[in-house]
Structure to design on (160 residues):
């Protein structure tokens, strides 16, 4: 259960006459005490995230399993009283990575990458969350960086 990485970076892009911060990158690594196949199945089963990820309030999607690449859902994170809907989240799966992408109508876009590396009876997970803030949301970059870092820490800790 050793933390291999934890980092938060921010970036900026020139907008008009000034450069406003627009990106937040955070990443974290953990050793998860599950074999690769079981951990990958758990991550792909997005509706079940509410059972292990303390930040996920609910998952809304059309009927049928979401464990197939290309399925679309809404993931609501936050608290039971106030959640943030990440609309149109989609998933892509490869042999060693599971990638989620989505956003919310001109406010932000995100990419959430799980890179999986099997060990003997555990799996090394490197999770990277990249968020591009758009429009007035750029003003909240410091807060988003803190929340993103906490989100990754809580989610990976819940798997250990």
């Amino acid at each position: 259960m050793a933390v291999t990485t934890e980092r938060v970076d921010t970036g900026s892009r020139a907008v008009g006459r000034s450069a406003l911060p627009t990106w937040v990158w955070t990443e974290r690594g953990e050793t998860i005490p599950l074999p690769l196949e079981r951990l990958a199945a758990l991550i792909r089963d997005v509706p079940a995230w509410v059972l292990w990820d303390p930040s996920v309030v609910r998952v809304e999607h059309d009927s049928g399993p979401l464990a197939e690449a290309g399925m679309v859902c809404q993931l609501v994170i936050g608290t039971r009283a106030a959640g943030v809907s990440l609309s149109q989240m989609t998933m892509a799966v490869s042999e060693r990575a599971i990638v989620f992408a989505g956003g919310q109508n001109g406010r932000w876009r995100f990419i959430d990458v799980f890179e999986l590396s099997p060990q003997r009876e555990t799996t090394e997970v490197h999770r990277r969350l990249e968020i591009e803030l758009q429009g007035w949301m750029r003003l909240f970059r410091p807060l988003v960086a803190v929340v993103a870092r906490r989100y990754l820490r809580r989610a990976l800790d819940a798997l250990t």
